């Protein structure tokens, strides 16, 4: 599965039966974080006023800042219960989750849904969903690059392949011309 539709993304969040699971989904799905970034994130790096999360190691680079939606920040405050330091999401023993644990949290929640292809939902699916929704909402590729912490624009540009609205619109225009029997322009050959 490449990405979820928005209604499926909301269904996935509703399937989470506790705050830790809900936050794991929200950080990936509505903020674009990878499972490793979620696992490594710390409460002291979350700014509840600015709604930003500082990630000292993001991918292979240092010192990235990403925006976190207000609802996730609010839910994090409830989940943290006044803790001022430590992991955003704790393991059952109180320490950091690892990226594999975040992966399995998302897999288990997805299994509870009625989403077709739910067995293929992963943190990467949620990150792609985030990127697709960002672009569909009118966000620029440059701003998405900053949010995801990509050094190169080409790292972010591959998310454009999930946006087919302009392609579908142009295809519909072509088919309308074909159905009306209008000739299409001959392509100009450049030599």
CATH class: Mainly Alpha
Roughly what percent helix? 40-55%
Low-confidence stretches: none
Distance between the termini: 42 Å
Assigned CATH architecture: Orthogonal Bundle
Number of E strands:
3
How many domains, as an integer? Answer: 1
Based on CA atoms alone, the radius of gyration comes out at: 20 Å
**Number of H/I helices:** 9
Adjacency order of strands in the biggest sheet: 1-2-3
- Gross morphology: elongated
What string gives the helices and strands in order?
HHHEEEHHHHHH
Indicate the mean pLDDT: 90
Beta-strand portion reads 5-15%
- Give the CATH superfamily: Intergrase catalytic core
Largest sheet, described in full?
3 strands, antiparallel
Could you explain how this protein is built, in words?
The chain is mainly alpha-helical and 191 residues long. It has nine helices and three strands. It has a three-stranded antiparallel sheet. β1 and β2 form a beta hairpin. The protein starts with 5 loop residues before the first helix and ends in a 12-residue tail after the last helix.
Give the helices and strands, then pairings.
Layout: H1 6-15, H2 19-29, H3 35-40, E1 46-47, E2 52-58, E3 61-67, H4 70-80, H5 99-111, H6 123-136, H7 141-148, H8 153-157, H9 165-179
Helix pairs in contact: 1-2, 2-4
Short description:
With 191 residues, the protein is mostly helical. The protein has helices at 6-15, 19-29, 35-40, 70-80, 99-111, 123-136, 141-148, 153-157, 165-179; strands at 46-47, 52-58, 61-67.
